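Entry type: protein chain
Record version: 2
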Amino acid sequence: MSPDPIDAPPAPAKGRAPNNRTLTLSDAERAALRPRLLRSEEVSCGKVPEGALICGDTFDVLPRLPAGFVDLLIVDPPYNLTKKFGPETFRERASSDYESWLESWLTESKRLLAPQASLYVCGDWRSSGSLQRCLERHFHIQNRITWEREKGRGAMRNFKNASEDIWFCTMNPEAYYFDVESVKLRRRVLAPYREGGQPKDWEETPEGNHRLTHPSNLWTDLTVPFWSMPENTDHPTQKPEKLIAKLILASSRKGGMVLDPFLGSGTTAVVAKKLGRRFVGIEREEEYLLWALKRLDRADEDATIQGYQNSVFWERNTLREQTQESADRPSPEPSVPQVRDSDALQRRLF
C-alpha cells in the first residue's frame, strides 16, 4: 500500500494454534527472499519487469513503466478508513481529498493500459461515491459487483457491514475481452425439473444435482481468508484467491499481463501465476512482498484455488462434492489435497 508513515512500531507476532496455517517467515527465509525483490530505483524507464515484485511507492514506480503494456489492472487501494498496514497507517480524510488521492494514481495507471484493457477497482460503501466519480471521468463503467464477506463484528446501532464493491471498467466499451464461460458458478439444484424424464438445464451426478449458472454482480460464494486456509496471511485487508481468480479469468487471456499497483501480500500475482498469466506487482511494505514471494514459490507445487475445481467455480459449503468430483473425473489441474484435521472448518465454507 502507499499509506502515510507514522512512528508506531509493528504489532508483536501473534501466538499460533497448532493447526493454524497462516503463512509465516523465518529470518533465514527473509534473508533468502529479499534479494529477489526489485527496488523502485531499479526499474528501467520504459521496460516491463515481467514477473517482478517491485518494492516501492506506487507513485514513484508507475511513471517508470511503459505505456500500453497492461491487459488487466486489478486495484485494491486503501479505503477511506484509518487502518494500519505494517508499521504505517493510511488515514481517513474528507471525501474530496480521498477523491483527489484516487485521481492521482488512476491518471497514471490509465497510461499503462492497452486500448482494449479492463480494470477492476475495489472499495467499500464509504468510498464508492468517490470511486464512481473518478472512474467515469477516465473509463467506461461496465458494472459494480457487490460481494458478501463473513468477517466483521455485529453492530448494536447499525446494520453489520458485510459487503464490499468491485467496480468493473473498460477502456473501450465496444472492444474488450470477457469470457463468461470461464466464470460460471456450479449451483445445487433444489427443485430439479425434468422434461421427458431427463434433467432440463441441470446435471445429475453422484455428487448431487447441479447447474452451471451465469455470473451475476452479486457474489455470495466467497470466504475471507482465515487461519485454517493455506492462502491466509496477516495482511489486514487480504482478498480471497477465488475472488481474484474470477476477475482474471473473466477479463484476461492466457499469457495476458496483469498489473496490481497495491499488491499487498501478493494475491493477484499468485493467482495470475496459477492461471497462466503474466504479472507485475507494486507494494511499499517489504514484509508483505516477502510473503508474496513465499506464496509464489508454493504455487509451483500447488496451483489449486479453493472454491475453484476442474475449471468451475463452486458455491460455499461444497468442499466434499468438489473433492469427490476430482476423484471421479480426472483433471489436468492439480487435485484438492487430502483433507486434514485442520480442514474440518473448511468443509462448512467451501
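Comment: The longest helix spans residues 95-112.
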